[in-house]
Q: What sequence folds into this?
């Protein structure tokens, strides 16, 4: 049996360990080597990379993707898309979703892994349809979680719905690393028996279960596993690529990865990791094993961001209290899976409850929107008192929320005007208006200064 690997260092591994602060210049030099390692795919875009490029790295995320594509012409490039949320934190109109998917593929993406934070399949159907229309691989992702209302039967139904929708692969997305080895075996086995498309497993090493879980998933027939090059593995990141490749190869599985090339890749990233450790951008907390996550189910990216936020406010003394409050907030909200954007919403609300010393004294606008039904159908029942506090006598939305939205692309194009140089710029503006506009202003200022300098040199 052949087992394939998706490498996550360019997206989820660095998102989980260093809050997606990896600039293009720090990995440009290894891309051509990564292209020939034998990976099934490189997860290199989507998730929080788009936001981080604009907000922190002063990079155009679309240009970053084109540069990666130019240096990696052979390996499939993969992105993570939050369904109707795209890469932002709210639902967007269908015309915007279709344009974003189309442009992502045009700029170099081969595989789009599409999920909905609530496992509401209505919220991935447009993105899946547009992915297929543009010739890329649509990978439906199940947001894996544990609760009184989540079970194997529900996951099998989700997988069947995704396959019927046209998804060419199904990914089990265990964002918090809480899936145990037996659960992995049982889930993969059940999916293999009920759907015909390849099965992928994405998990994290947060709780120390990562390698065991991947091992049992492969035994059950899992076709592709997500791993991270070893120096960016472990902790809240993924299991190490080289270790899993070595172990599975020893057991007789067919592995296409070139171990010597993997060593070159790891050697390249070692000083990158050392730099982030020295600068304090890689907190050792996220490198350790935390079995408490089996209770609070906080995913890697959420954990690293929570550490960063509390550190910035000099409130790390409240870290354990916030973690303890997280599952309570999750229960109140009907047990949503803790994946973006729900993980941020639940985490921020838990932190607010703790820091203000009173539960729901202040409720974020995003949580209010969720309770109104703007993110889809809650998996379970929302706490009645909390619902009453937010809605009063108003009834929650029950239809697909995107059906209530007016088309948005052309409106945004007129709004941003000449600051946007292309359709991709308009999409950046739609996703993150303030950050995109600030980036455009900086970009135009650089061009203006460069032009003025060139004129001056000619006149001299």
A:
């Amino acid at each position: 049996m052949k087992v394939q690997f998706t490498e996550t260092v360019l997206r989820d591994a660095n998102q989980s360990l260093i809050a997606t602060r990896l600039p293009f210049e720090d990995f440009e030099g290894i891309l051509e080597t990564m292209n020939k390692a034998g990976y099934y795919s490189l997860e290199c875009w989507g998730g929080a990379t788009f936001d981080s490029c604009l907000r922190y790295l002063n990079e155009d995320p679309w240009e970053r993707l084109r540069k990666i594509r130019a240096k990696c012409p052979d390996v499939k490039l993969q992105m993570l898309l939050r369904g109707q949320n795209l890469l932002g934190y709210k639902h967007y109109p269908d015309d915007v979703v279709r344009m974003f998917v189309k442009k992502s593929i045009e700029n170099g993406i081969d595989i789009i892994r599409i999920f909905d934070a609530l496992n509401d399949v209505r919220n991935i159907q447009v993105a899946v349809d547009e992915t297929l229309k543009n010739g890329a691989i649509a990978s439906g992702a199940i947001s894996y979680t544990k609760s009184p209302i989540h079970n194997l039967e529900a996951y099998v139904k989700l997988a069947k719905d995704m396959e019927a929708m046209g998804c060419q692969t199904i990914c089990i997305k265990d964002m918090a690393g809480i899936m145990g080895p037996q659960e992995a075996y049982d889930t993969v086995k059940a999916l293999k028996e009920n759907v015909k498309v390849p099965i992928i497993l994405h998990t994290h090493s947060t709780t120390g279960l990562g390698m065991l879980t991947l091992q049992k998933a492969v035994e059950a027939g899992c076709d592709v596993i997500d791993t991270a090059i070893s120096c960016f593995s472990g902790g809240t990141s993924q299991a190490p690529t080289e270790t899993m490749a070595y172990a599975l190869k020893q057991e007789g599985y067919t592995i296409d990865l070139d171990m010597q090339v993997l060593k070159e890749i790891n050697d390249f990233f070692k000083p990158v990791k050392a730099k982030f450790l020295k600068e304090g951008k890689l907190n050792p907390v996220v490198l350790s094993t935390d079995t408490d996550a089996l209770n609070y189910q906080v995913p890697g990216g959420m954990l690293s961001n929570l550490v960063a936020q509390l550190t910035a406010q000099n409130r790390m003394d409240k870290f354990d209290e916030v973690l303890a409050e997280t599952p309570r907030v999750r229960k109140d909200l009907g047990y949503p899976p803790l994946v973006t954007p729900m993980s941020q919403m639940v985490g921020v609300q838990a932190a607010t409850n703790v820091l203000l010393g009173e539960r729901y004294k202040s409720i974020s606008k995003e949580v209010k929107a969720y309770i109104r039904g703007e993110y889809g159908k809650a998996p379970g029942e929302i706490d009645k008192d909390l619902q009453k506090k937010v809605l009063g006598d108003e009834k929650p939305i029950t239809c697909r929320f995107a059906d209530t939205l007016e088309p948005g692309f052309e409106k945004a194009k007129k709004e941003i005007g000449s600051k946007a140089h292309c359709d991709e710029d308009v999409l950046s503006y739609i996703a993150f208006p303030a950050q995109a506009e600030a980036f455009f202003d900086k970009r135009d200022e650089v061009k203006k200064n460069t032009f003025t300098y060139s004129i001056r040199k000619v006149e001299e």
Observations:
- The first strand starts at residue 4 and ends at 7.
- The chain has a mean pLDDT of 94.
- Residues 413 and 423 are 8 Å apart (CA to CA).
- The first helix runs from residue 9 to 18.
